[in-house]
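Page 37, top half.
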Amino acid sequence: MTKIRSGSAPVNDEVLLRAQDRAYVETLRRSSGWLQRVLLAMTLVGPGILVMIADNDAGGVITYAQTGATYGIGFFIPAILLGGLIAYVVQEMTVRLGAVTHRGHAEMIWGRYGSFWGWFSLGDLVVANMLTLVTEFIGITVGMSIFGVPPFASAVGGLVADTVILLFLRYRTWERVSIWIAGGNLVFVPLALMAHPHWGVVAAAFRHWTVPGGVTAAFLFVVLANFGTTIAPWMLFFQQSSVVDKGLTVADVRHGQWDTAIGSAAMVVVAIAIVVLTGTFAFGRPGAGTYDIQQIILVVGQHLGRSGEDLFALGLVESGVLATIALTASTSWAMGEAFRWPKSINMPASRAWQFYLPGLVSAAVAAGIVLIPHAPLGFLNLTVQVVASIFMPAAMLFLLLLLNDREIMGEHVNRRWQNVSAWAIVGLLVVLNGLYGASVALPKLF
């Protein structure tokens, strides 16, 4: 096996800064008071909540909104709940891998399997992240247009906010600011309650899980899009690198699991709220299956007034900003780990410009793509989610190989049920991808 490579000189500073954070954690851990225990829990949580709520990104909000408008409150409510469980199983593995190895996902792949597979995984990530960033800026520009802000100004504003947060905040502050932004994602919950949905229909979705309209190419496309927005390659790289940059150790794995579980629950609640909202107001209207996000926002406004329209738009903007922060960090972490550059948000930009540059350049390019006149933004959004779903099985295979490597993980290797669950997820994605491919190549079969 190839040995894990050591980092470059600036790593000493990274390690020192993380050691300072760990000293604070150990001080809290040795304290017995209830306040210190609360502070300890609040200090250790973060990566799981961020990755899961950021997963309800602008592309996810648009996908769930279009899903509800097209298929109503039915098949996709239980599917989202299943997706949340899948996301937890996958992301919990990244917590253990990061806490045990103290290395990010890209660094592990490059160091354990060599440059060929390193380039393969890095290429998948960079392409998927770039495409996903486009959907984030779609959400930001569409949401801000409700308030009369032109697309150029909103795209530049989103890019500036991302740059400032990434360049000028140390990891701990960066994480806390991001979590505060993530809180805005919950705005969709009161909007769903304001819609006064028929809760009996929601409950019936769990009792009678049927495919609306039968299995068609369009239905499979939307299914893949929903899974693509629930689990994506960037999430593996982001959470593992975040765990490492935060300085979590094996002693913190349990907190990391709770952190991820809380984030998963929040993700599911918000996603279901969006489907319920648009399924209540838009489903059944003439042409609802072809509505873009602007039309859906207008429908919400027709039923809930200007305040409802504004809140939905703000939620869309918030989801885009949060995911932009997470995706740029994910790209920068992966590039820094792969090329042995500085790889910590703790490092000042003046000493670690190579680390920050890839993520911010990818965000700038994505913002520029969104501003192209007459770009098919709605179709592009769903396509990006499908691409993420197609890329995910390869990313899962690397994760499973690493989690079952006893030389790396020791006693923290995957248990049997974790392997069975993970392989079932890979199988599900492969089957769905295969069915969609068959529906495109042989449409008469569907």
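Page 37, bottom half:
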Amino acid sequence: MPQTPPSPSSDAAKQIKLVALRLFAQHGIDGVSVRQIADAAGQKNHNAITYYFGSKDALIRELIVDGAKAIDQRRNAALDAAQASGGPSTVRQVMEILVDSSIDPNPPIWGESYTRFIVGMQMSNRALFMDALAGRWNSGYLRCLDDVRRLCADMPADVLNQRLVFMGAALGGIISGREAELSDHSRGHPMWSAPETLRRVAAALAAIITQDASQTE
């Protein structure tokens, strides 16, 4: 179940991070000021971001790492469980792990924001995004790619590598779109909230990779 964000008085830093993530996802990092974050987080002192994080850039970096670390931990745990059972045995199973691990199992009350945030970051300030990660917190993703390569060993490497790029872009775009739709509480979103939707997303991603190459030339 979604968690109600903590009050500023009980956990100001966590509240600021939750609010900043939502605002950055909605408006981009350049579209949100420190003052707006403080106001939205209920902080009367507009220097709260500097006090808790040092700077806006430092806050952004912490948000990037927090989300990437959580996803990587979920991804590796799912891969470990699959390997314990002799898998992953199909490309679709790998895609299900990628999709499921991208979803926050315990989001704030207004919904998930992380994928929208990082998709926007990669488009507007990829250098900051990559520098914040410093090559960390992507081991689960790389393991998934290795499993796909193992399962598609007969596919030409250049074709497979291209399809993996397409798949990664599609994964980010679809999950980002899902977050945006579900964050709109003015109406229902039966397609995005349906349990089978994420399975169908995984099936579509698997199709990007496994489609007969002769049909795409």
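Margin note: Residues 64-215 form one domain.
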